[in-house]
């Protein structure tokens, strides 16, 4: 029985997204698809214990889920409507036996574009993607995003109801609309990844990488590959990111813990992306990460190249935070005076931004402006939201003497 | 599906529209008619002509002015027949007022049977 439980958990993990996507495509109803899929998983637990796990688990689950969907439709309040009758007829046409091997079409690209439709709020896009593409239960999504389970249920219900009632299509956008429509999809995946960037939430980084892998397979656009490369390169530093439950910054990570195999893989994905000659912000961020990966330590990083990449990134998507990072790179490349002058131009935009003061404190300290550095550390501590960061800044402050 | 495109803007701001607004609206209406999307559409008189009506305990009260005193007011509408929201958004983005105001798109409710 335990063997079956483990097998089921694995089957769920590997097939939920694909089977759900195929079901939603046929049923045009997220809730019915989820219910029918749960029915099929329950039946699998029963049948597979007796007969063993079939070879084509996805096909088995889809066939059984489709039958359970027909049962549910026949019993539903809408059983008499024309639309329901049409759906039942369509579903019943496919009478493959669950044991028969049949491949199921991959509809996950449509599904992710629907989940990340710009007419849905971003928090709904994120929740719906994790629920439908990754098969995560609402309770787990609620925990990851620090909200309650009823709130998350309500958010998912509202999003599904908007898809149904506002006529949000279940379709991959056509050229030339695909590029603007890809942006929210990439944002959602990266947001899920970053939400996993804390010691007790790392499952989400795995989900994000899984999503990027699928998206990259189905739609190998340069920016999809750029994001995939960026997350892979970050992922390679996983073992060095935390020490004793505390986050370690790139500068202080033990680079022996970096996974060189994954770094190589990330770089290969990036190289393939760059070959498409369609530069984008994710590709530049991945390139910056790749340059860091090449260095054996913080000091020997190719800072002039990092400066160049931040400049290109800022030209494409201007932002004071990118300019702050570039100023730090300029200082590390050897031009402290220019870096300090660059920071002056950012002080009104980043007046409430803790990293601005922490970075300026560091540079002023290097420049021998100890009193001003002390003031900046004190301001940074005031703006800091978490204790680990405050401790780090206090340590820096005390080192000034 | 049918969608109502509600056209909102700050009253008086249409003077700042770059181009010939009447001609652009004419061209838009012609385009949606030709595409078979137009079900209906009208422009409204300014809110200075609006009257608001309530009935409480059988008593009708009429007051001067629009329902809500907001800066952006409803200036007109189109009723569009589209296959889905993406098509409705595509057409709504071509309504001239979208360049300086806001077009809200809402599906028409369908009552089953």
Strand order of the largest sheet of chain A: 1-2
CATH topology of the domain at 2-105 in chain A: Rna Polymerase Sigma Factor, Chain: A
Assembly status: heterodimer
Largest pleated sheet of chain A: 2 strands, antiparallel
Mean pLDDT over all positions of chain A: 90
Number of strands of chain A: 2
Strand content of chain A is under 5%
CATH architecture of chain B: 2-Layer Sandwich
Low-confidence stretches of chain A: none
Structurally, the number of domains of chain B stands at 1
Distance between the termini of chain A: 64 Å
CATH class of chain B: Alpha Beta
What is Rg of chain B?
Answer: 16 Å
CATH homology superfamily name of chain B? Dimeric alpha+beta barrel
Q: What gyration radius of chain A follows from the Cα positions, in whole Å?
A: 25 Å
Order of helices and strands of chain A: HHHHHHHHHHHHEEHHHHHHHH
The overall strand count of chain B is 6
Which structural class should the secondary elements of chain A be placed in?
Answer: mainly alpha
Helix amount of chain B: 10-25%
Instruction: Name the biggest interface.
Output: A-B, 13 and 12 residues
> Can you tell me the overall shape of chain A?
elongated
Keywords:
heterodimer; A: 401 residues; mainly alpha; Rna Polymerase Sigma Factor, Chain: A; two-stranded antiparallel ribbon; 20 helices; 2 strands; 70% helix; B: 113 residues; alpha+beta; Alpha-Beta Plaits; 4-stranded antiparallel sheet; globular
Quick recap:
The complex is a heterodimer of chains A (401) and B (113). In chain A, 70% of the residues lie in helices and 1% in strands.
Describe the structure.
- The complex is a heterodimer of chains A (401) and B (113).
- In chain A, 70% of the residues lie in helices and 1% in strands.
- In chain A, strand 1 and strand 2 (246-247) form a beta hairpin.
- Chain A has a domain at 2-105: Rna Polymerase Sigma Factor, Chain: A (Orthogonal Bundle), CATH 1.10.1740.
- The model of chain A has no long low-confidence stretch (mean pLDDT 90).
- A two-stranded antiparallel sheet of chain A has the order 1-2.
- Chain A has helices at 2-27, 30-51, 57-75, 82-93, 108-115, 122-132, 138-144, 149-165, 178-195, 203-218, 222-235, 238-241, 260-275, 281-294, 303-316, 320-332, 336-344, 354-366, 370-383, 387-399; strands at residues 242-243, 246-247.
- Chain A is an all-alpha fold.
- Chain A is elongated.
- Chain B is of the alpha+beta class and 113 residues long.
- Chain B has a single domain, classed as Dimeric alpha+beta barrel (Alpha-Beta Plaits, 2-Layer Sandwich), CATH 3.30.70.1060.
- Helices cover 19% and strands 38% of the residues of chain B.
- Chain B is built from two helices and six strands; from the N terminus they run βαββββαβ.
- Chain B has helices at residues 21-34, 85-92, and strands spanning 2-10, 38-43, 51-56, 59-64, 72-81, 102-107.
- In chain B, the strands form two sheets. A four-stranded antiparallel sheet of chain B has the order 2-5-1-6, covered by helices on one side.
- In chain B, strand 3 (51-56) and strand 4 form a beta hairpin.
- The longest helix of chain B is centred in the first third of the chain and has 14 residues, at 21-34.
- Chain B is globular, with a radius of gyration of 16 Å.
- Chain A binds chain B through residues 78, 80-81, 117, 119, 165-169, 171, 173, 177, and chain B through 1, 3, 82-86, 88-89, 107, 112-113.
């Amino acid at each position: 029985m335990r063997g079956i439980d483990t097998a089921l958990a694995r089957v769920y993990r590997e097939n939920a997204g694909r089977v759900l996507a195929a079901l939603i495509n046929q049923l045009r109803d997220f809730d019915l698809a989820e219910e029918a899929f749960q029915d099929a998983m329950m039946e699998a637990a029963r049948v597979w214990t007796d007969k063993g796990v079939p070879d084509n688990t996805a096909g088995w689950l889809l066939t059984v889920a489709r039958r359970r969907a027909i049962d549910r439709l026949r019993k539903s309040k809408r059983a008499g409507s024309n639309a329901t009758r049409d759906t039942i007829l369509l579903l019943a046409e496919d009478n493959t036996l669950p044991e028969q091997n049949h491949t199921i079409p991959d509809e996950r690209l449509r599904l992710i574009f629907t989940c990340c439709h710009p007419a849905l709020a971003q928090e709904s896009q994120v929740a719906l993607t994790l629920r439908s593409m990754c098969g995560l239960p609402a309770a787990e999504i609620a925990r990851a995003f620090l909200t309650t389970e009823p709130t998350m249920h309500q958010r998912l219900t509202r999003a599904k109801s908007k898809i149904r009632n506002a006529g949000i299509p279940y379709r991959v956008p056509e050229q030339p609309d695909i590029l603007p429509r890809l942006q929210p999809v990439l944002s959602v995946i990266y947001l899920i990844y970053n939400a996993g960037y804390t010691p007790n939430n790392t499952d989400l980084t795995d989900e994000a990488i899984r999503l990027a892998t699928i998206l990259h397979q189905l739609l190998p656009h340069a920016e999809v590959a750029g994001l995939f490369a960026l997350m892979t390169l970050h992922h390679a530093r996983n073992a060095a990111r935390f020490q004793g439950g505390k986050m370690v910054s790139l500068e202080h990570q033990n680079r022996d813990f970096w996974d060189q195999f994954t770094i190589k893989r990330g770089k290969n994905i990036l190289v393939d992306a760059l070959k498409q000659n369609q530069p984008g912000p994710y590709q530049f961020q991945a390139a910056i990460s790749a340059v860091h990966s090449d260095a054996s330590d913080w000091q020997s990083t190719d800072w002039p190249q990092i400066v160049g990449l931040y400049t290109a990134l800022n030209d494409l998507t201007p932002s004071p935070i990118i300019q702050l990072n570039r100023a730090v790179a300029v200082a590390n490349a050897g031009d402290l005076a220019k870096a300090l002058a660059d920071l002056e131009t950012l002080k009104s935009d980043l007046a409430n931004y803790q990293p601005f003061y922490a970075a300026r404190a560091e540079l002023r300290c290097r420049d021998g402006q100890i009193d001003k550095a002390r003031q900046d550390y004190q301001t940074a501590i005031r703006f800091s939201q978490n204790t680990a960061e405050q401790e780090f800044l206090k340590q820096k402050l005390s080192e000034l003497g | 599906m049918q969608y109502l495109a509600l056209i909102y803007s700050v009253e008086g701001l249409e003077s700042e529209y770059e181009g010939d607004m009447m001609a652009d609206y004419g061209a838009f209406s012609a385009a949606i008619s030709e595409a078979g999307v137009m079900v209906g559409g009208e422009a409204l008189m300014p809110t200075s002509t609006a009257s608001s009506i309530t009935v409480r305990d059988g008593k009708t009260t009429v007051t001067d002015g629009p329902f809500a005193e907001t800066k952006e007011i409803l200036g007109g509408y189109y009723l569009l027949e589209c296959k889905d929201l993406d098509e409705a958004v595509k057409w709504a983005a071509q309504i001239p007022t979208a360049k300086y105001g806001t077009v809200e798109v809402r599906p028409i409710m369908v009552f089953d049977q």
